[in-house]
Amino acid sequence: MEKLLTVCPLNQQVQSRSQPYKTVAWEQVKVKGEKNTVTGMMQGDQLDMPNVLIGKSVKVNGKDISIKSYVVDERDDMLKITLAMASPTKEKSDDKPTQGSD
Predict the structure, then answer these.
(1) Burial state string for 50-77 with b = 16 or more CB within 10 A and e = fewer than 16
(2) Does residue 55 contact residue 41 with C-beta atoms inside 8 Å?
(3) Fold type of domain 26-83
(4) Average pLDDT in the 1-24 region?
(5) Which of 10, 29, 78, 84 is an S-S bond match for 66, by CB 3.0 to 4.6 Å?
(6) pTM of the predicted model, to two decimals?
(7) Rounded alpha-carbon distances, angstroms, from residue 92 to 42, 51, 87, 96, 102
(8) Which residues share a beta bridge with 16?
């Protein structure tokens, strides 16, 4: 299978993708941390932004999104954040007990 490489325009990081049909382009976004608003790059649930003070969530283009995890890349002082995005499948509860429960 042919591999597709994408490059983040903000930090020139190369990312390998083995399934080209699932590749999403990097999008420039405005991110509000605790005190600062900065420009970041977002691809799916991955957010790369300058290292500023953040809380348990960040505001991306005005939408509040929880942070699942993050790592500080000390080489270029960037935050690599994995966002807790909602599931793409819209599952609804039927409020019925599962089988085997009383």
Answers:
(1) bebebeeebebeeeebebeeeeeeeeee
(2) no
(3) Thrombin, subunit H (2.40.10)
(4) 54
(5) 84
(6) 0.61
(7) 28, 37, 12, 11, 22
(8) 5
